[in-house]
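Exercise 4. Each item below gives a protein and its sequence. For each, produce the structure-token representation.

Item: Formylmethanofuran dehydrogenase subunit E domain-containing protein (Methanorbis rubei).
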Amino acid sequence: MKWHESCRYMELSREYTVEELAKFHGHLGPFIVLGYRMGRFALQHFDNDPFALFATVYCSGKPPESCLIDGVQIGSGCTFGKRNIELSVSPHISVMFRHADGGAILLKQGSYLSRRSEFDNVDKELALENFAEAMYSMPDQELFKVEEL
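Answer:
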């Protein structure tokens, strides 16, 4: 699908490396990776059109959980500039994606946290970075559960 025939920069790949995530966000942590993967999943689940998606990010609204928002923006293309992403303060971490066609999904944290202790044998910040790097390659179903709404 071509959104605008004459535009060259609207359909660029949304594949980012861990280095690019860290460059955008300032460091590499679990929540930017989780948000990125959730966003990428939602974009692919629907029709790869970031203009047709709207994201609601549910979290505490404070770091480190709020870092999820940066990842969702990068992965889905839903941005504050386009006004198609919002934060809803919540004690639970999840992201709801609604599509212009009326479809919606809710992505909730998966079982990935059970692997966190595997990375606790080094400096705390390095452990978080190593865990985030491992999360980048985990299967979607380990990172989050998908609920069709």
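Check: Residues 18-148 form a domain with the 60s Ribosomal Protein L30; Chain: A; fold (CATH 3.30.1330.130).
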